[in-house]
Amino acid sequence: MALLVYAPVGYVLLGVDPLLAFLGGAGVVALATLPDVDLSLPFVPHRGPTHSLLFLALVAGALGAAGWAVGQGSWQPIGGSVRTALFAAGIGLLGVGSHLLADMLTPMGVNLFWPIPAKPFTLALTRADDTLANYALLGLGALAAAAVLLVATPA
């Protein structure tokens, strides 16, 4: 899902700076599994706090703050603090957000408004452990990434 969500952003960034596009894609893919940290945290239910808009905002905010700090230094590959903060926060939003979207495809869904009790958001299309569905989603993401590279590369 991370590759699929990032593909249009990667296309835009390839036109601006290919290294930035690659770093953004790597960041999104790396962060895509972060919500499942709850599987190794005692007393934290799976698809609880780490699968919410609150967690999404915390991750994006923390990355945005780190981007702001990096943008204050002498090395500014993106520009100043504002651009670097927006880029870093956006990578957090796409990475964690892609995981939440993928989990919404499952019958269990996610409670986006945790800690407020609410009915989980779900499309109930496939189970999380469905190998065929997971490989299909990976294939779609890889196809979208490849298409972006083909379209964005000058002939």
Task: Give an overview in words.
With about 160 residues, the chain is an all-alpha fold. It has one domain. Helices cover about 60% and strands about 0% of the residues. The protein is built from 5 helices and no strands. It has helices at about 1-15, 20-30, 55-70, 80-105, 130-150. Helix 2 packs across helix 4. The chain is flat. About 30% of the residues are buried. The model has no long low-confidence stretch (mean pLDDT about 95).
- Give the strand tally: 0
* Number of separate structural domains: 1
Topology order in helix (H) and strand (E) letters:
HHHHH
What distance separates the N and C termini?
29 Å
What is shown here, in short?
The chain has 155 residues and is mainly α. The protein has one domain.
List the helices and strands and how they pair.
Layout: H1 2-16, H2 18-31, H3 53-72, H4 81-104, H5 131-152
Helix pairs in contact: 1-2, 1-4, 1-5, 2-4, 3-4
